[in-house]
Amino acid sequence: MNMNHWMESVIHTNQKKPFPLLSYPSVQYLYVTVKELVCGSAVNRLIPQLMETGCRAFHFGESADMALMLEKLPGDYLILGNISPSAGFNNNTPDGIDLMTRGLLERCRDHRNFVPSSGCDIPPGTDLDNISAFFDTVDAYYYRQHLFDMVG
User: 62-81 pLDDT, tens per residue?
Assistant: First the structure.
């Protein structure tokens, strides 16, 4: 049985199965991508299972506690996330996304393996000024951090 057929049968017949049964085979199958998108508030309790997948990069959705993820996962794993696509990017202003992004960067500042990003797909129709504000804030933060590192 090929992986696609197996996944379709599992999804249609076992929708209430726990994370390991449904996710491990697909994560192992997708291991070559070296990245796993993890959404949902339960992710904060799944750290041991995440480490067992063999992935070394994780992109967390908006409900994940990024500071906790960074504390619990090894420092040589890439940890990406997690500005809310809807509340952060789509239903906000450039000043609002700047504030949210700076807050996330400050909470995660002690972790060099952190990569700021959206918590999931940015909705169509999102104001491009909000997206630009996110990148401008990230650039300015890391530029300022680089200057502090040089003098300090």
Answer: 888 899 899 999 999 999 99
Rounded to whole angstroms, how far apart are CA atoms 100 and 89?
A: 10
The pTM for the full model equals: 0.72
**Inter-residue contact 34 to 43 (CB < 8 Å):** no
Give the closest residue to 55 by CA, choosing from 21, 94, 29: 29
Residues 6+ apart with CB under 8 A from 34: 55, 56, 57
Token pair 């996304």 is found at: 97
In terms of C-beta distances under 8 Å and separation of at least 24 residues, what long-range contacts does 51-56 make, across chains too?
52/24, 53/23, 53/24, 53/27, 53/28, 54/27, 54/28, 55/27, 55/31
CA distances from 131 to 37, 104, 119, 120, 144 (A): 20, 15, 13, 13, 20
Tell me the pLDDT tens digit for each residue of 2-44.
444 444 444 444 444 444 444 555 544 443 333 455 666 677 7
